[in-house]
Give the backbone structure.
Amino acid sequence: PAFTSSSLAMNVPMSLVDNASRATNIEGYEPRTDEDMLFLYNIIAPRYFETLRIPLLAGRDFERSDEGPARPAVIVNETPARRFWQSPENAIGKRLRSGAAEWRVVIGVVGDVKYSRLSEAPRPFVYYPLLQSYVPTLHVHARASGDLNYAIRRVRDHVQSIDSTIPFTRSTTLSEQTRVALSVYELSAGALTMFGLMTIVLAAIGIYGLVAYTVQQS
């Protein structure tokens, strides 16, 4: 009752560290020799986009039916959809693969978001379904409907009720993650301000010395 939606994902937003990347092949597309075909990616469970409020532009989200035996599927963001297929709608049903792995069908296109840093430009991003690409280390993503501290306690209690040996190492909010991302620019701005003040002080000392020398000479 403390949440409106939840999901799982390998990586979290605004971590200041780039997500892992994979060399990606687009079916029917021959890249230039100097073209960057490294796409960032994340492995997610159903309802991830609903939880993080990332808009679905075309197609559908992952579902529980997208498990191991199902057709290999991916969801991409808007940047590669327009770059390789002109529009999100045209991307649905197209295929891509990472390296020599199996071809996967694009079942959905979502909006571009900031993945690691606030300053990053839009870039190709691929989402793989957790039910087909299991990883052991995952982060719970949940959208609370009320008090955040109460919601976090509910998560801790629920995890402990499932298995008391599962470590609950860290909990944070997206607002806190964003503040951390902003702090990098605040530190940079503070350093620039300090250097600017030092430059003004040094310039003032130099001018004072020059004026004093000129007065003594006269």
